[in-house]
Amino acid sequence: MIERYTRPGMGAIWTEESRYGKWLLVELAVCDAWARLGKIPKGALKTIRAKAGFSVDRIDEIEKVVKHDIVAFLTSVAEKVGPDSRHIHLGLTSYDVVDTALSLTIRESLDRLLADLRGFRRVVKRQALKYRKTVCIGRTHGVHAEPVTFGFKLLVWYEEIGRHIVRLENARRTISVGRISGSVGTYIHLDPRVEVLALRSLKLAPAKVSTQVLQRDRHAEVLSALAQLATSIEKFAVEIRHLQRSEVLEVEEPFTKGQKGSSSMPHKKNPVRCERISGLARLVRANAQVGLENVVLWHERDISHSSAERVVFPDSFIAADFLLAEIADIVRNWVVHPDRMRANLGATRGLIFSQSVLLALTRTGLTREEAYQVVQRNSLKAWNEGLDFRALIEADPDVRRALPPEGIARCFSVAPYLDKIDDIFERVFRHES
C-alpha cells in the first residue's frame, strides 16, 4: 500500500470504515426492496434501519475466528440489530454485497478523479494561452527540429487530457452496475425485482447477466484507464524533466522556500517531483496488468481476483489521485524561462531553418534532390565544423544563383512559424463554452 501518497479525500474512500459502510448500504437497500415486496415486515425494517451498524474492531475480532469477512461483518451488524437481523442478507451471496459495494466505491473514486482532471485541464489551458506565442525549439528524437511555441506544446497536453476525461467517463459507465442475483447469478433464492429496486436506490444499473461476480473486464477497463492517465501524466513530467536539464533550462518545476536539492551539492535544484511521478506511474501501469489477469476466473467464479483487487484498486486510485494533484501543482507554479527558449533557438546556429531553405530552392526550379544536396552539404559543414549555417548559405554560389539576399533572409525568420498557431488554438477551443 502507498499510504505516504494518500490525500485525505481519496484515502477516505478506501478505508475499512468506508468499505463496510458501503456493504451496509447494499444490505439496507436489499432489505428495503424485500419490504416493498412484502417479504420483510415493516416493523422489522424500521428496527433494522434504526439499529444497523458495525464496529471495524469487532469485525476484525470475529474474522480471526470465522476466516470470512462478510460473515464477520454480518455478525457485527446482527449484534447491533438483534433478532430482526434474520431478515438481513436474505437470498444473497457474499459478492452480491461485495461487488455492488465495490462498484459504488470505484464510481465515487472516479468522480473525484474526474473533478480534479477537469481542474487540471483548466490549468493547462490557462498556461497554453499564456505561452501561445512564446517561441521555443521543437525537438524530434531529442534533436532540434523546427520552432514551435511553448503554448502549442501545452495545447497538445490539453487535448490529451480531454481524451482521458472521456476514458474515465466511459469507465464510470462500465462500472456503474451491481448484481443482486444469488450464488451463481440465477436468482434461485431471490426475486429479480429485488435487484432492480435495490440497485435503483443505489443509482446503479443491474448487470444483464452475471455469475457469482460481476465480470472482471469491467474492472480491467477501469484500471486500464487509470494506467493510461498515469502514463500521460508521466509523459508531461518527463517533458519537464528534460526541459529542466542544465543544458536546456527552459522550464523548472517549483522549488519552494527552504527546499534542499542535495545533501552534498548546495547548488542543486533537481526535478524530484517529476521523477517521483515517473516512479509511481510504473506502479499504476503494473496494476493494470493485474486487472487483466483477474478477468480469467474459473467457471462461475473463483477467489483469485479478490486478494489482488484489495491492493490494486486502492493503490491505483490513491496513486492516480496523487499524480494528478502533483502535476497540476507543478504546472500551476512552474518557472518558465522564455529568454532561455529564445537562446536555445540559436543553439544550432541556424540549422533549424534548413527546411525553409530547401523549399525556397525548390520554388526556384531546382529539383527536390538538387535542393536537398545543396542544403545538406551546408548543414553538415555547419554541424561538423561549428560554423554559422546562414553564413554558409549566403556564401554558397548555388544558392546565390537561385535566391536573392532578401529571399535568403526570409528563410531565417521565426515569424512564419507562428502563422498557423492561432488557427490551431481556435480549432481546439472552437466548440468549448
Notable features of this structure?
single chain, 433 residues, mainly alpha, Fumarase C, Chain A, domain 2, Ribonucleotide Reductase Protein R1, domain 1, 2 domains, two-stranded antiparallel ribbon, two-stranded parallel sheet, 6 strands
Structural overview:
With 433 residues, the protein is mainly α. It has 2 domains: 3-252 and 267-342, Fumarase/aspartase (Central domain) (Fumarase C, Chain A, domain 2, Up-down Bundle); 351-411, Fumarase/aspartase (C-terminal domain) (Ribonucleotide Reductase Protein R1, domain 1). The protein has helices at residues 8-13, 16-36, 42-51, 56-66, 69-81, 94-130, 150-175, 192-201, 217-243, 272-293, 304-333, 338-345, 354-363, 368-385, 389-395, 397-402, 405-411, 421-429, and strands spanning 135-140, 143-149, 177-178, 205-206, 251-252, 335-336. The protein has a two-stranded antiparallel sheet with strand order 1-2. Helix 8 (192-201) links the parallel strand 3 (177-178) and strand 4 (205-206). Helix 6 packs parallel to helix 11 (304-333), helix 9 (217-243) runs parallel beside helix 11 and helix 13 (354-363) packs antiparallel against helix 14. The mean pLDDT is 95.
Helices and strands, in order, run as HHHHHHEEHEHEHEHHEHHHHHHH
The CATH first-level class of the largest domain comes to: Mainly Alpha
Task: Give average pLDDT, whole number.
Answer: 95
Oligomeric state as shown: single chain
Main β-sheet, in a few words? 2 strands, antiparallel
- The total number of structural domains is 2
Strand content: under 5%
Q: Remind me, CATH topology of the largest domain?
A: Fumarase C, Chain A, domain 2
**Gyration radius from CA atoms, angstroms:** 30 Å
The CATH architecture classification of the largest domain is Up-down Bundle
